[in-house]
Each structure stands twice: as C-alpha cells, then as structure tokens.
Request: fold
Amino acid sequence: MKKHFVLLFVFVFCLTSRNVVGETTENFPPASIPALVSAVRIEGPVNFCGEQVPLDSIEVRERLEKELLLILWNRPQIILWLKRATRYFPFIERTLAQHNMPDDLKYIAVVESALLPHAGSSKKAIGYWQFIKSTGLHYGLTIDPNIDERRNFFASTKAAVSYLKELHDLFGSWTLAAAAYNVGEDRVRDEKTNQKVDNYYDFYLPLETQRYIFKIVAAKLIFSNPSRYGFNLQADDYYPPISFDRVKLTLPGRTPLFLVAQASGTHFKQIKDLNPEIRGYDLQKGSHIIAVPEGTGKKFHSHFAGLTEKWRQENKMNIYIVKKGDSLTRIAERFDVTLPALTTWNDLSQSSYIHPGEKLVIYQ
Reply:
C-alpha cells in the first residue's frame, strides 16, 4: 500500500510541477480529442473517386467504421500522415490531373506506405506505392542491385498512375481498379467470373483486399476534415515540399557516392535521402541523374570533376584474375581491403562463388 501511495504522489507531482525548461502545461492548449463513438458517426454521402460508398448497407457501414476506428487509434501515425502529405501530395495531384484521373487516388500511397520510401511488405513490395518487382519492371522502373526506382517518389508515382489507369480501363470502375491494385487484376477478373458480381462491396475477396478500399476511404475522411477528428495542425506544422536541383553525371567507372555529397557541399546521408533509389555506396559506370540540395547544382560539376580526378589518382583500379583455391575472404586479406568493399566493387554478395579465370576489380 505504501509503495502505491508513493507512486501516486510522484505521478500527481509530475502533472502539476514545472518541466525542466521552466514552462508549465498552461503554455499549451488542452487537447481536444472527440470521442471515438462520435468520430465514427459518418454522415453521408461518402464516395471514392466519385463512386458512391453504399452506407445504407449496415454491413458496409460497419466495415468502414472498423477501419476508421483502427486508424484513429494510432493518432501519432495520422499526425505524420498529415505532415508528410504537404511534401508529397502536390506532385501526385498534378500527375493525376494531367491524366484526368480522380484526386482520391492519392490516398492509396498513404495506405500503402505511409508516404515512406523504404516501406516494405511480406510479399516483397517496396516503396511509396508498394510495387512488387515484376510489376515495377513492367511499368518501366529500374530495379537491379544498384538502383531500385520503387523508392524514387517521382518515378514510382508515374508508374502507379499508369498502372491504375490501365486497371480502370480494364474494369471500368475506380473502386475495382484500386482493389486490383492491391490483389492483382487476374484475381479480380477470376472472382468476377466465379462469383457473378461486378461490385467491390459485394465481392468475397482476400481479407486484406476486403479491407483495402475502406482503409483508403477512412484516410480520405480524416484528410478531408482533420479538425473533426481532433487534428488541429497549424501551417508551420506541415513538412515543406521536396526541393532540390538535378545534375546529370556520365561516369567512366564505379564512383563513390560520397564524392557527390562533397561536390554539393553536404553529407552522404542527405544524398541518400534525396535519392533513396540508390543502393549501396557507389554509382555504377554510365549516366545518372542525381538530386542534390537546392542551390548547389550550378557549381556542382566543377567541384565534382576535381574531386573525382583526385580520387581516381589516389585509388588506382587493378584487375585481379582469380586462381584455383582463391576465395573472396583470402583475396580481400591479400590486398588489405575489406570483404564488403571487395564484394561491392564487383557486384557480389559475401556468399558468392568465384571461379578460376574470373576477373575482379580491386581499388588500392
């Protein structure tokens, strides 16, 4: 009992005392969070891409209320959604408008990835729009050991818009197009044949897909009226849109990415953040278009030329021919380089097999 009393006293003291920087809770307006019951009293009509959500159906209303409740339970996530949206929505909205497609499709990216470049799924879908590899390649994205454009916001958005447009042409409904985006067009087509229905809300589909449209609609409801759900953000709370310069590089060979950072007067992390599609620490031989911090593009090439020339002089490239009995570990030790560096230079993994006569690049 004594222990419980002490804990209660400490809790009350923390609530009523000043914090360490001398401020009191009176400096902050009290949070106004509507009751969950009132939050899910949805007033119709509600639509997705101009297609009506049949809220007169008790079953449909229950499914939407469930997703809205589950999303509202994670309030920190919603705040991040809202703050990130001002960074990414403008480009998505422009791209959709250019193709005469509904603005509501932008909420798919929110539900798919929370607008994060490195989001991934158990099905190996990656990026803002959660493309699996085969679909990404089909819609023109570069996906290889060095570049994965599923993580590139601009390239993946254009691919997603093309995919959704084709799905709409196929099914004649944006609701079914979005469902097919989640489960695949073949599955939706098969279910139409098997179930003899043509309305998403009447389909029996995989459980994830049965929830999918309702998640998107719930996100739309929150974004359309954040204050109704207790999210009263001010203008300076939102993250600014992405801003950068683009530079084109034509490289004679593998080049460390840190040189790009140095040439643009920043650090490695910022270049990786601006170009999340770049995998690893190097750029491969060939042409690249790279995002660099805004305002650094003008002088970039003159800085980069000097830095790369110096680096190539200091890091001579050697070609080693693999001999019988060699292993990657032994070769790395022999040339006093790290195993990760050796595998990166040669597009190998540490478990890769090498064979006599094979040529390896080694920088010294």
User: Anything to note?
Assistant: The longest strand covers residues 244-251. The radius of gyration is 26 Å.
